[in-house]
Design the sequence.
């Protein structure tokens, strides 16, 4: 079973348990980035998480948005970019760009 299949299997298992679930997926990278396109983070409404979109440096911000989409906010594309101020704000010290799509599993 691939990593993506394992993560989607876990997301479905949590959904079947009656939990709210959100999936965050790296859709674009530029320059130095912590994880490749296709990397996923699955979050449930109890705070459980599997996978990774950043190796930790932007995951706090992604989890916050995942909670919002689980609570009814529309899916969204998150941009974490190369400006020094923004990069250090979320811990993206690698200087690259990462875009992460966050959506609720319905």
Sequence:
């Amino acid at each position: 079973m691939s990593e993506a299949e394992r993560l989607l299997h876990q997301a479905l298992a949590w959904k079947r348990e009656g939990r709210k679930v959100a999936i965050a997926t790296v859709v674009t990278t530029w320059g130095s980035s912590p994880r490749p396109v296709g990397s996923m983070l699955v979050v449930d409404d109890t705070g459980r998480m599997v996978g990774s979109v950043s190796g930790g440096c932007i995951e706090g911000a992604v989890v916050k948005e995942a909670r919002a989409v689980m609570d009814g906010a529309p899916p969204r594309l998150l941009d974490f970019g190369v400006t020094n101020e923004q990069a250090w704000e979320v811990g993206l010290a690698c200087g690259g760009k990462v875009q992460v799509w966050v959506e609720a599993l319905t």
User: Anything to note?
Assistant: The chain has one domain: 3-104. Helices lie at 3-16, 59-70, 84-90. The beta strands are 21-30, 40-44, 49-51, 76-80, 97-104. The two ends are 23 Å apart (CA to CA).
